[in-house]
Amino acid sequence: MEKGGAMLAKRIIPCLDVKDGETVKGVNFVDFRSAGDPVALGRAYSKAGADELVFLDITASHEGRMTFTAVVERVAREIDIPFTVGGGINTVADVERLLAAGADKVSVNSSALKNPDLIDEVAKRYGSQVLVLAVDAKLDFEGDNDAWQCYVNGGRIPFGKRLFQWCREGADRGAGEILFTSMDHDGVKCGFAVEPLHKLHEMLHIPVIASGGAGCREHFKDVFDKAEVDAALAASIFHFNEVPLNELKTYLREEGIIVRI
Known about the structure:
Helix content is 36%, strand content 26%. It is built from eleven helices and twelve strands. Strands 1-4-5-6-7-10-11-12 form an eight-stranded parallel barrel, surrounded by six helices. By secondary structure, the chain is an alpha/beta fold.
């Protein structure tokens, strides 16, 4: 059962990490390699049955610029599934620009940590349903349950806030979903960070999206069964066709996970 009482389908979400207009994928937020054209990938995922698509301009915050609107517009024209866009969103005006470009939701990360009032402002103006709070965190001290440190600027700089404290605050301020990426698991393909994800699911009243660590179809089953998250996001295994999206959904349904096919 989900938080609201009804059993909802679990969502599978491909993610386009975009740098200089090209989809890339790294390991632990570094060592990026090309993964193709974001427009072509977005079109393919929409046709393959992805439940949503996430587009992250991964260097916008670090470079102090806005998300490339033109690329967002091109992707939005090619897909017919919910579309979340993040990167370099610092103001309500940035949100308005991206929604006008075709985004259904926006993802805020560094800007929200630096200015938490942005969450309140966006939620009040557009509603919580358009706001995804993305959190990049790394386990800094073994054995401390709340030692997950939040990072900003594409995982480059530790910020000094703890994962669970920050996610609770974000939900209270009006975020509609939490997208948690474990930097330790990112690109390693050894499975999602099940333990902190389950804790987030238990403590929050909003959906939790798992990110970082998908390497095979069994990892998705594990994160849905053990962490009870609402959605799972992945990049390279889809980009390089290591786990075809339609085959993943068929497998999950056979394993008793409710998904849309």
